[in-house]
């Protein structure tokens, strides 16, 4: 397996036909996140919110707002930099940062 730590993937209904291919080629499991038939209105789907939340975080980075890079490798590097920036902001917040779940400090 190319990525041994990656065992299970979640995907939209549009990727339904890839489950067998993923299992055959990479040995991974693909779980299709579907909507319950009786579901009415907007309800966040399980595991889908993780992707949408991540896109929202990356959308705050101006460099990722449009496709500025000429090479795919450069775009990937910008994505890694944005992820590192988010991680560092959470690990070492500035003195004036509001900390989540700590009341009104």
Could you explain how this protein is built, in words?
By secondary structure, this protein is mainly α. It folds into 2 domains: 1-34, no CATH class; 46-93, no CATH class. Helix content is 38%, strand content 8%. The protein contains 3 helices and 2 strands; from the N terminus they run E-H-E-H-H. Strands 1-2 form a two-stranded parallel sheet. Helix 1 links the parallel strand 1 and strand 2. The mean pLDDT is 81.
Write the layout of secondary structure elements.
Blueprint lengths: L7 E4 L7 H8 L2 E4 L15 H12 L12 H20 L14
- The total domain count is 2
Termini gap? 47 Å
Order of helices and strands: EHEHH
User: Residue-averaged pLDDT, rounded?
Assistant: 81
Can you describe this structure in just a few lines?
The chain is mainly alpha-helical and 105 residues long.
Task: Based on the model shown, name its key terms.
mainly alpha; 105 residues; two-stranded parallel ribbon; 2 domains
């Amino acid at each position: 397996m190319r990525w041994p730590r990656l065992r299970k993937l979640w995907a939209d209904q549009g990727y339904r036909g890839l489950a067998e291919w993923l299992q055959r080629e990479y040995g991974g499991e693909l779980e299709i996140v579907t909507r319950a038939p009786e579901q009415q209105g907007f309800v966040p789907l399980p595991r889908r919110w993780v992707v949408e939340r991540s896109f929202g975080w990356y959308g705050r980075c101006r460099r990722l707002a449009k496709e500025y890079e000429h090479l795919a490798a450069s775009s990937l590097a910008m994505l890694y930099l944005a992820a590192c920036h988010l991680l560092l902001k959470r690990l070492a917040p500035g003195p004036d940062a509001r900390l989540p779940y700590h009341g009104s400090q």
